[in-house]
């Protein structure tokens, strides 16, 4: 039995790893000639770390995971502490720590773990054709490949999605722009073992520790779509958007490297129920493109891969196994997309009265409420 995996990102490599555990041969095809991750880092919460362990890649998380032991929310304007708490109760409750990691390092090490020479790069999918004998993938370079089934992990702009749904879907602008990158850890910005968030005016600034004494940072600002801004104006833009904010935020702005800072207009896709058609299955962002507001985008792709492997472990018929995968995942991933959307709206001032009420809640939050929410999301995964 042979699977064609379209995409060598987190979802694609993890899917191949899960299928390989079941004795299924996999060929991975990646559109780009060299992986260039969108985003500087990624929050791999405990459910995602458990999936990496299950797939045999837990040592990658051990190497790359930052020392995130505490969480704090601060008023972005006056720098006053709103709430601060330890993540130890969460780790004890779910049995694994969260690991914020460099996205580039994670993808590179996952590819190295699989075997870079075993991945075909520069293979951009053009179309898929399936029949009773399997699926043929056609690529824009004129080549093709045939397998018994296809796992399409080709991202939010998925070419394979239309072959499953029968129609194109539009991405939905979430209403805010995100800048992100990496800086050296500095006590002038935040403690080196804490995820620190500065909030105010429907905006958000965050620093999260990753390995090698670095902070992953991001800035969120509600803005119209399509503004003429790029890396050349990043410090000027952020200085304007965060004028009057506290000194740690100003220090962070001055510390960033414009050449390695990403500016992303955040989108998601309306959840849909069909993840499979015959011998073609969607996985990761192709199946459930979400905003990053609850940190579950990469985690849900890892969960997809684990469930895919579990389905083939108990069902040997390809189409039946893929339908079982769809049944096991479609409600979970829809829930995560909608949870992220709801959190996005509150965080970014869609209704400012709700956002201000959230700020007030943070000032009396002991940490138990936030940890309870994280715990429910994590334990909803396949390896609870």
Automatic annotation (TrEMBL):
The keyword Secreted does not apply. SUPFAM superfamilies: FAD/NAD(P)-binding domain. Its EC number is 1.14.13.113. One of its GO terms (molecular function) is urate oxidase activity. InterPro entries: FAD-bd, FAD-dep_Monooxygenase_BioMet, FAD/NAD-bd_sf, HpxO. Its cofactor is FAD. Pathway: Purine metabolism; urate degradation. It catalyses: urate + NADH + O2 + H(+) = 5-hydroxyisourate + NAD(+) + H2O. It comes from the Bacteria. Belongs to the FAD-dependent urate hydroxylase family. This is FAD-dependent urate hydroxylase. It comes from Marinomonas mediterranea (strain ATCC 700492 / JCM 21426 / NBRC 103028 / MMB-1).
